Amino acid sequence: MNLSSLSTSSHPLSLYGWDEGWEAESAPYVELGLLPGRVVRVDRGLCDVITPVGTLRADTEFVVPRDPMKVVCTGDWVAVDPEGSDPRYVRTLLPRRTAFVRSTSSKRSQGQILAANVDFAIIAVSLAVELDLGRIERFLALAWESGAQPLVVLTKADLVPDAVGLSYLLQDVETAAPGVQVLAVSSTDGDGLDVLGAVVSGGTSVLLGQSGAGKSTLANALLGEDVMTVQAARDVDGKGRHTTTTRNLLVLPGGGVLIDTPGLRGVGLFDAESGVGQVFSEIEELAASCRFQDCAHEAEPGCAVLAAADSGVLPERRLESYRKLLRENQRIVAKTDARVRAELRKEWKRRGAEGRAAMDVKRGVRGR
Fold first, then answer.
1. Which CATH architecture has domain 273-363?
2. Start-end of H helices in the chain
């Protein structure tokens, strides 16, 4: 097959997101006889790659890097050995446009890539349990940092007894997700699925959320068939088991592709300062009016953020969530950045000195 003679629209990979950019990136490798393709599944050092000649199984050993951020993952575009090669290897990883990354539980502060080259990050949140706005904000920070457009989908909307209650829930999430579209959907009766399908038809989407959030059911609804295994959530807390154990890239009948992921128990930030700023854009805007440029919004005079919180304009919960995510992100960055570590030590010493001074005042101890 002469790939160079095909237009991008008629290319065998067009359903998987192939465009002129990927054609240009892969051209040097095609000239060497390699096949371009997209990784649709990774499992223990092997991956399934969809290519112009079909799906091939390839070994990732040839491109295993020292940097865990450069391991092959679902959604990557790669160049692989052609048919007839034994063994067949992924020979190169094409530059990523976006990458959804979280920190691992490792004390070495390594990142784990959940999906690559994603246009939309769909955060599935179940309405069968009480909303955790802080967790939604955490997901959103990672989504914005990835370079993808976040979208919050409130699943199991049919379980909310009345329209007024659903409206309040939507408002709560919209307040925690400025600049992000929030949809309430029901995979049972189909409400909201047409709008969601129209959004995801425009590119590659990754489906994220906790176990029991209804991701597999939602994926099946978008696919129009039962491709993903579904298990019932526990009545006691709404949590489910990991019915999806690998990340799979699936073509949607209405256009676009979907990467379904296992339920995430932990979503640690990984160098996501700009993502946090995007989630709390109203706080960032207020901070521009603070008296001091390096205001920490803790107790400084002339702090516009604290003034907004005191007046009720800024919800205290939002401010606390903002502080928490920034502190967590600083700790992650500090593990690999000596300058940040030094700044944190200086800040800890300053706060420690202020705390001791405050205690001395309470005890009536005078400074020497």
1. Orthogonal Bundle (1.10)
2. 20-31, 133-146, 163-176, 193-200, 215-223, 273-279, 281-287, 304-311, 316-334, 338-363
